[in-house]
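Example record used in the benchmark description.
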Amino acid sequence: MLQINKVAFIGLGAMGYPMAGHLKKSGLEVCVYNRSENKAFAWTAQYDGLSAPTPSEAAVDADIVFLCVGNDSDVRAVTTGPEGVLSTMTPGAILVDHTTTSRALAEDISNACEDLGISFMDAPVSGGQAGAENGVLTIMLGGDEKTFNTVKPIISTYAKHTQLMGPVGTGQVTKMVNQLCIAGVLGGLSEAFHFAECAGLDIAQVTSAIQGGAAQSWQMTNRATSIAARDYDFGFAVDWMRKDLGFALDVAQELGLHLPIAAMVDNHYANVQANGGGRWDTSGLIEQIRLRGEKIQTAVTAERVSHRGSCHCGTVQWTVEAPAVLDTHTCNCSICDITHYQHLLVPKGRFRIVEGEDALSLYTYGSHLAKHYFCSHCGIKSFYIPRSNPDGVSVNARCLVMDTVEVIYDKPFDGRNWEKNSGALAHLSKEE
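Model output (structure tokens):
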């Protein structure tokens, strides 16, 4: 087994800084590199270690080089770039990448290492900044078993659990699974806590009552207090979660999978970013849930604007008066199930056909109560008269021109039983 004496650590962010510190405290010779030299100088002062001005210089004579940087492009820059570590690493050395990256990048870096006689392992981590500081990270690795057995005792200086998942790339895919689980938990937790707030409950009391049961999770135990206080200035940032979810959604597409929960949470996080919360901890997801509720309530009484819409070919054109924030429903009736139409119901007085009325084809189907209007040219049903709301018009929100729409908030609606559900929307057809 390779005798490990000197290691290099590239990237001293919130995770890398304490991880490199644990390596130094274990008795190893550690040379660090960080893009911001001040961070490297602070680390050397705290741990009495060495620093280098470039990744390549930090890696000279290192038995193992560790990476913990930001994204795929950062990894490429510090490995295969002009001053990357592969320009000075020697055959027999090991490169361990703790960055969460795409699977494709891990495979590319592995191939570059193989050409130089260097072993490579992709080794993304879980446990956050606190886990790194306390040396209790969970690390999932991809690579060969011999290399894993060499690096495991070294990595154990800052990890409580390390596991070999398979060949190169499987570490990254396992981290994607980890992030999908976290996203799902935070999505459910955010909606549940928002529900509790709106129902007049105290989040701390709710957490105390249920965290000993089946609903318990790490996120509930560690983030309930900060969520209640709306404090998100710690932990794993929304920006990084979106990067990670993007990797998972890409692999899902390659596998022909649809991950609706992950896609929904990712969309919520995109809105958090748009509202300035990109550097918040991921538990800040609840703010988007809160904002959504506020905007839906505002939409009921908000000033109306004129929206334009049309069929796909543009032959049938219409306008509808509604707020800029639209509260719609997704119909799952037999007509709309395939295309998942989003419907916005308004009184007839707020809907006007401006062009192409003579091109409309009317279908009433079995009940002859609902009136569905299709363009005779492109076949698109861009609006219809619901059977439970004969005084209203339900427009297809996907046929709207979006330049006047601020946001669309959609909710499921049981289109197979209009009578049961009509009470939720029937009042809209009575408005003028």
